[in-house]
Design the sequence.
DNA sequence: GGAGTGATACTCGGATATCTGGTGTCCGAGTTTTCGCGG
DNA sequence: CCGCGAAAACTCGGACACCAGATATCCGAGTATCACTCC
């Protein structure tokens, strides 16, 4: 099992936007350069975040991406599901209905217990993700950040941020 | 994010072995035929389960696989990690240390908060998996199983099971 | 009849092809800006 | 000086190659079995 690298990128981008003054936007080029990643590929994920209603895209010159909701209203689960999709990680293929012990499909009224057990764990994972918001990430990032790093970021972002 | 199909197969195989009398073994061909899956590919996963100490492999004629521990001592997490590996799903690539705001690596003493948040959720997932054992799966499977299916399975397994 | 022994047949184990989904990239549609012109 | 308008430039959006990891498979090493032979 492996989460897409885009999840990490998306979380960092939303967290960065959350640290800026409300309503601030950055374009894809700035977000990519700030994190040192490929711009064209990052755009793919930003698009997904916009489609999910997490980011808002502003077209035209001086355009870019900004948070569509307040940072406290965006959970980590929102971001993860926007990029990874909402399908469960464990996908039951109902192999209990195959092989020599199988009977008619309509007999399997109860859900597969193995599927239920795996989904139960997945619900716990989602719950933990839902309890954390992008605002939490932003404040944590600031709390542990080095002063010089913050200053460098502030200066660099100065002429990139758009209101 | 997607879990390997082998996880489902491994769980069904361990659960089936747990339902048999203690010490019973089945060879790869029987396990594959019972679940209606490819034998050569299932062997790959059974091998992984054996290497992890969950199954025990008995070579030679009348050989096969059997549980290495009692069903109550094997958690779902054991099975999942044996097949998927123990690496976390979220892998922080430390992109905060890249880009124009980066400073010397030794300054980043604190772990990345985003990584910490994701790993926190992952711990909840693992905890839920650790709280369920293969014995639970076996009893649940029996509880919801149709009588005719159980009878068919019993008859079919009769001359395949090995002590 | 029993024990030893050799061949045998069956088992798992690791190394090897193939294929889907994530990774990475590109060019086109749309919109805001902005510059120039006329009033 | 101000308003209008058209061109332009920059933005995001969807469609197109590429590659790693999961999927699927095969043949060889090893061992318990079993039949046969000899005592």
Sequence:
């Amino acid at each position: 099992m492996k989460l897409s690298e885009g999840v990490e990128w998306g979380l960092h981008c939303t967290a960065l936007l959350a640290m800026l003054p409300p309503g601030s936007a950055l374009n894809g080029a700035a977000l990519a350069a700030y994190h040192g990643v490929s711009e064209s590929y990052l755009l793919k994920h930003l698009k997904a975040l916009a489609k999910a209603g997490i980011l808002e895209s502003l077209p035209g010159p001086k355009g870019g991406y900004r948070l569509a909701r307040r940072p406290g209203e965006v959970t980590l689960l929102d971001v993860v599901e926007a990029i990874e999709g909402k399908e469960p990680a464990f996908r039951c293929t109902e192999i209990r209905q195959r092989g020599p012990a199988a009977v008619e499909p309509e007999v399997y009224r109860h859900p597969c217990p193995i599927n239920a057990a795996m989904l139960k764990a997945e619900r716990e994972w989602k719950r933990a993700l839902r309890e954390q918001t992008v605002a939490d990430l932003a404040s944590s990032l600031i709390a542990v950040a080095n002063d010089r790093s913050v200053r460098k970021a502030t200066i660099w972002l100065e002429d990139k941020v758009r209101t």
In short: The radius of gyration of chain A is 20 Å.
